[in-house]
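Q: what sequence does this backbone want?
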């Protein structure tokens, strides 16, 4: 794959640029432009459902509020740090990661990234279909009607795939519009449901242990910023080389965090007020939240909720297509996005029409991938913070270049950190996902599988921090020698 783009990215309706370096003439974006895709993808009312998920750890409202704010802001701050690489190298995240892992070595975390993106975008599509069925039922229709569900699946998948195939410029315009639409309806939702809050019940929630608090914190970080971290540089690669690193980090963090902080805190108030609502959210988050609304607002709520979920899925499928290309599959970018769209559609059909239990196995699958993804993030962030120069664009595509073919330190760090991390996470859905019961083999060090730390998902935190520290120290000399050859 050439390191240079064959044509300007904005010259046609469909973005043809794949994983190539963006030409200088097309790097016209400003840091504040990053606000729109991150805000639009995270302003969904689905964020309110995290209030139920967080309280499910058995912690108080104030503990839940603290971990939610910290988890959301810090996790999107980490996305902002990785976005710096996009400005410096004008290539997708998984191509820039070759500087840390080697041109061929990058395929190891690349596969993990691709699977994670496919999983998240399929999850969002499924939520959109289930929400449609629930709202139709509330309107007096038959939400379980097979024809209705097929139509909802087709429409949702078509919207996601079409936008992702059209590419960066269409998505940026789409997100700027969706930001206002979803923002207005979300404010309306809060205004109409604030009367359901019972402050007495919320404040009466008992405090949890340190293990429960840490578990909630890790879950929030994984569900928000860490869920996007493997695509963070994909949206900053069109930034001018003169753009401020600090501004890029700030706009990523603000765009990703501002809506979720408000939504999750409001979700905590709703879930803490109504145990039945909190239980319903576990199966159908958007549909459960819709039950609080009067009939007249259900249609705009449904349309906005679905569009917000579609917005998030579009970012995911666009980037998963780029990741597919970075693995060495030589097809056009639109084709890669379309292939991932087919996989998304098939996954949605399977869950909506055939699967008996979806949420449990899915969450178990994501926490399993979350450990190596956290390790990768720690390695890449350390690599970015150590570098002082722009990337060698040609070397990102040449295994004989300064970044080499395989970086033993990075790959070894990721393997060891993942093995340690998996030892400190446990499959919380043993009956629904028995294939994943092999984890947690190091929990005996912190009280065992029945101890208070068992469900804290410490492995994700350990993998992230350990990988960062090892890389920051062990690869310092190698990074310095790489940059010296550029003088």
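A:
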């Amino acid at each position: 794959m050439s390191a240079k783009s064959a044509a300007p990215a904005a010259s046609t309706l469909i973005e043809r640029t794949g994983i190539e370096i963006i030409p200088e003439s097309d790097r016209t974006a400003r840091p504040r432009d990053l606000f729109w895709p991150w805000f639009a993808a995270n302003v969904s009312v689905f964020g309110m459902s995290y209030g139920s998920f967080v309280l499910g750890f058995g912690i108080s409202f104030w503990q839940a509020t603290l971990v939610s704010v910290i988890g959301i802001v810090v996790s999107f701050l980490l996305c902002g740090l990785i976005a710096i690489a996009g400005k410096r190298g004008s290539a997708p995240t998984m191509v820039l990661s070759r500087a840390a892992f080697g041109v061929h070595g990058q395929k190891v975390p690349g596969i993990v990234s691709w699977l994670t993106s496919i999983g998240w975008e399929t999850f969002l599509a499924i939520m959109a279909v289930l929400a449609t069925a629930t709202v139709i039922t509330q309107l007096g229709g038959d939400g379980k009607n097979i024809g209705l569900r097929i139509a909802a699946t087709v429409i949702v998948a078509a919207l996601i795939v079409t936008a992702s195939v059209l590419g960066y410029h269409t998505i940026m315009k789409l997100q700027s519009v969706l930001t206002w639409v979803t923002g207005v309806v979300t404010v309306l939702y809060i205004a109409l449901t604030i009367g359901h809050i019972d402050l007495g019940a919320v404040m009466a929630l008992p405090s949890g242990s340190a293990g429960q608090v840490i578990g909630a914190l890790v879950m929030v970080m994984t569900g928000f910023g860490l869920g996007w971290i493997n695509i963070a540089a994909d949206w900053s690669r069109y930034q001018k080389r003169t753009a401020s690193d600090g501004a890029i980090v700030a706009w990523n963090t603000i765009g990703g965090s501002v809506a979720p902080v408000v939504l999750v805190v409001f979700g905590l108030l709703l879930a803490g007020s109504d145990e039945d609502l909190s239980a319903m959210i576990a199966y159908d988050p958007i549909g459960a939240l819709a039950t609080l609304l009067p009939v007249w607002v259900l249609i705009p709520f449904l349309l906005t909720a679905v569009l917000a979920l579609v917005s998030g899925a579009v970012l995911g499928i666009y980037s998963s297509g780029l990741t597919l290309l970075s693995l060495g599959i030589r097809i056009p970018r639109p084709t890669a996005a379309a292939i991932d769209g087919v996989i998304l559609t098939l996954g949605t059909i399977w869950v909506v029409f055939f699967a008996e239990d979806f949420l449990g196995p899915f969450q178990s699958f994501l926490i399993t991938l979350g450990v190596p993804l956290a390790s990768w993030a720690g390695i890449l962030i350390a690599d970015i913070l150590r570098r002082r120069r722009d990337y060698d664009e040609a070397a990102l595509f040449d295994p004989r270049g300064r970044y080499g073919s395989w970086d033993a330190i990075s790959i070894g760090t990721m393997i060891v950190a993942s093995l340690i991390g998996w030892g400190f996470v446990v499959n919380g859905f043993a009956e629904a996902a028995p294939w994943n019961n092999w984890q947690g083999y190091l929990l005996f060090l912190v009280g065992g599988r029945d101890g208070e730390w068992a469900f804290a998902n410490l492995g994700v935190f350990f993998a992230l921090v350990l990988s960062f520290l090892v890389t920051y120290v062990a690869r310092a000399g190698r990074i310095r020698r790489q940059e010296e050859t550029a003088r």
